[in-house]
Fold these 2 entries.
Entry 1:
Amino acid sequence: MSIIELKNIRKSFGTIEVIHDISFSVKKGEVVCIIGPSGSGKSTLLRCINGLETYQGGEIRVHGDRVDTASKSIRRIRTRVAMVFQRFNLFPHMTALENVAEGPIYVKKEPREKALEHARELLTRVGLAAKADSYPPQLSGGQQQRVAIARALGMQPDAILFDEPTSALDPELVGEVLAVMRSLAAEGMTMVVVTHEMGFAREVADRVLFLDGGVLVEQGPPEEVLSRPQNPRTQDFLRRVL
Ligand code: ADP
Ligand code: MG
């Protein structure tokens, strides 16, 4: 069963088309990694999937529901597909615990006590039980990103989209975030991960997509796309990053 389905997606900013006819789907429990040079459209594609951006052509469906920013179902789709950003995007004036519980309380209308209890469990799951009462500025980048992952999980999403979740981190903090993502993958979470971490993609991805200039150039299992890329553009990109 496909949780996310993109068919012939086209996206323009003004008169410039930045996503050209992209189709792919993501099944339940699948981990799809998207790689590609800066400016190739990776973030824009993720933002279209959870309705943060409109698209001009084709169709995106989440669990069969059409992603249409103008429709009433968009709020429901956004709660089903969580997003983790490069720059954490936590509320600085709220504790880690409050950051995780905020969505369940205000968006999902869960009772406060129950939401706080669940938020504590989620912080434990990402290894941050001891930091529940800390504010984001008191946490390292790696800890903030783990809070952001706990917050995404708090919405009990069907899938999580990650947009370069480790790119803003000091190198020594990358591992702790990737470890949490690995454990989510092992638990069967459906994930779409834009990343430059080729080791992670090789190890965790079921499928790797290579984007270049808004075109989905190549896709397949990591051992094919990363080790034996067929397309010269993929070969050239990998030569530069590996
Ligand atoms: P990536 O995430 O792969 O680096 P992006 O999705 O951020 O690429 O950008 C894809 C293209 O769309 C780039 O040419 C970028 O300049 C353009 N773009 C992204 N966001 C906007 C925007 N809000 N307005 C205009 N152009 C944009
Ligand atoms: Mg980007």
Entry 2:
Amino acid sequence: MSAPVIMTVENGIAVIEINNPPVNALSQAVRSGLIECVREADADGAVDAIVIYGAGRTFIAGADIKEFGKPPQEPHLPPLISEMEAVSTPTVAALHGTALGGGLETALGSHYRIALASARFGLPEVKLGLLPGAGGTQRLPRVIPVAKAADMITSGAMIGAKEALDLGLIDEIAEGDDIRAAGIAFAQDLVKAGKGPRPTNARPCNPVTSDEMAAIRAKVTKAARGLMAPVSCITALEAAVSMPFEDGLKRERELFMELMQTDQRSAMIHVFFAERKVGKIAEIEGVAPRDISQVGVIGGGTMGSGIATSALLAGLEVILAERDDAAAARALETVGKNLSGAVKRGKLSQAKYDAIMADQFRTTLDYADFSNADLVIEAVFESMEVKQDVFGKLDAICKPGAILASNTSYLNINDIAAMTKRPQDVVGLHFFSPAHVMKLLEVVVADKTAPDVVASGFALGKRMGKIAVRSGVCDGFIGNRIMNAYAKAINGTVLAGASPYDVDRAMENFGLAMGLFSVADLAGLDIGWANRKRMAPNRDPRERYAEFADKICELGRYGRKTGRGFYVYEEGKRGGTPDPEVLEVIAQERAAKGIQPTEMSDQDIIDRYMAAMINEAARIVGEGIAQRPLDVDITLLNGYGFPRWRGGPMQYADTVGLEKVLNDIKTYQKEDDYFWQPAPLLEQLVAEGKTFSSLNG
Ligand code: T1G
């Protein structure tokens, strides 16, 4: 393996190249190579200036996250950057790709910064439950306005080269795309102009008033909702504003080391790697996906239009079929609105919007128009009969090799595939509403689905900017099956003594955007009601069925759309208010069932909710529906709003301890020993003293 850092000297310019694919992460070898080269160059009387740049596609994209959690190795990055900053030879960071985290901190410790026009810059440590721990919180506010520094550090968002130049983060945007040559030319100009070192730490922090700082802290604290890192970022920034540089650097280090010990940090780094690992499955390793350029969508409702929008934004040609002109017109309007939203958000240019609407998208009433489609996705009514009819027709119309996909959220893909002569081409592509916004895509693999069709589902997901997760066939696949389980547990919790309002409060305090009953009111209680009626014939008589939701529906209360559900909704008011009549319905059911309600703390409620989620997830992994626990985590994080800083239900289970979860389940069994059956995998892992993460490979 060649050295990750090499230096050449050309006409008095020491050029240090960092070459540690894929993203030039600051591994121990890179750190030691970098500081050795800087020391050697600074001691070389023939060297007038030093240029540091990254080989390959990017400058340094940060510390090597793979080293986190392992014993830290010298040289540590903070003193390395400070030593580099103090050299007497002017240093230039030549930036391209994404200069992120420790990479941007290394650039901030350089005296000057030049970048390609396509370069981007960020301090995303907060997305890992950390803060910039190598001087970023101390040097950035010395280079750009404090408020902007606060925004970059607490959001982790990247900025482009033009904004970086305007802010003063970089000194120049280079012409062309040869960052090495641009760095050398910039250094030569420095030497000609007689410019020496310009250490960032010698610059004062940009001005900010204490009121402005207080307002920044208040805003960040409110938005943090349980996250520790953003608040620590502000504490470090306050040190930059109020302390001498070295003291601020010490304070930053203290705060960084505190965050390194937190469960939030280990959860968010778990998510970082899990989101990259979830697409790596043996069955598609080395399997080429089929070419997809024309996509057919059947059904122009919310889901179908969202899927069409997502495909259009991915650059695919889309034909959307509806049953009549009016429905087709509505679909066209919905897709147009979705794309206009993308234009407003800066995700799509107006010119691109016009081009899409002119010749990349059209509607039809005739499935015959799908004869040349590479992929057809149906998003019709959730009825097996309707879907089987659609697939029978598609089988006769579509060309050989075309992929036929169902967006069903729980129906059996094997039964749908059986309506075709090409079961190997049939797959489930379960999008989440709104499909052009939600990142999760469940690729549901039926018994006969071909590996290259599975690979095509993953490739489509990546092209759409989504995260695809492989699911086997079962009722509800991964996400909805788990949601059905924890909804039953929550209904049991309400029967046992909690109110729907206690539950929603506890879930929101846990970090979910909304509690289960608020979500149900928003989605429409009639949808869940129809589902429960569908499942009723198969309901096991031993199930302790909670009826209060059905009773509320029988009163014609379907949630927001009818003005009443679990909550009462008044015109012009955002949220709903608790409804005493709902509490009465629940009290009557408890009485009829002979249940004496018990007091429940928020923690009691969360313990039950999470035990149900973890137990069903353990079943799903044990049955092979999800390949690994990380697949469940990624599903719940990207499709169901599970708090990212908790890492997902399986990561959370490892954090609280599987033995505790199992013991909780055994306690609840006394109330309902039908629902609370421990999953075999959970019992096995507890018996072996193992964690779910031990199954992630
Ligand atoms: N360390 C180790 N591996 C990394 C890495 C990193 N910083 N960044 C990416 N990888 C791996 C990734 O796991 C994947 O591996 C491959 O590179 C391609 O990544 C002291 C403490 C740079 C925008 O948070 O945002 O600096 O799956 O699929 O879509 O204050 O990677 O191929 O085996 O994401 O083109 C701060 C994280 C670290 C940046 C490229 N830096 N990376 O996106 O490729 S903490 C970050 C990214 C820090 C200092 C602190 C993205 C990217 P594999 P990829 P991509």
